[in-house]
Amino acid sequence: MGVLTVIAKRLDAIIGPGVMLLYPLVPLWPYMKLVLCMWLVLPIFNGAAYIYEKHIRKYIKFGGFVGSNYSEDQKKILQMISLDARKYVAEYVDKHGWPAFERIIKAAEKEAKKP
């Protein structure tokens, strides 16, 4: 019991210098929070998008729902692509029509077959 008492009494001698080293950083904490919030919020830095893409997105399961105004073949095509691509394809199809999208697919297939 005597050894533990001595260690407990001398613990402040060990922890004290560590606390004194960290003490100057405490006033910087509000500025560090401000910089972190700016990195997350401002579009120049794109911090929130980085966090979402690198860490959060892999844990989110996206549904395979496609609107009912497409035929079965069109729904199969839309379900095979990612959610982001599906959103942009749906916007393009709504704006320009499905035949315009099929022309793009055919042109891409021709381009891919070129040696």
From TrEMBL:
Q: What are the TM regions of this chain, as residue ranges?
A: 31-52
Alphabetized Pfam families for the sequence: TB2_DP1_HVA22 (PF03134)
Superkingdom of source: Eukaryota
UniProt keywords (A-Z) are: Membrane, Transmembrane, Transmembrane helix
What InterPro entries has UniProt attached to this entry? TB2_DP1_HVA22
Descriptive protein name: HVA22-like protein
Q: Whose protein is this, by species?
A: Gossypium anomalum
Top-down, what is the taxonomic lineage of the species of origin?
A: Eukaryota, Viridiplantae, Streptophyta, Embryophyta, Tracheophyta
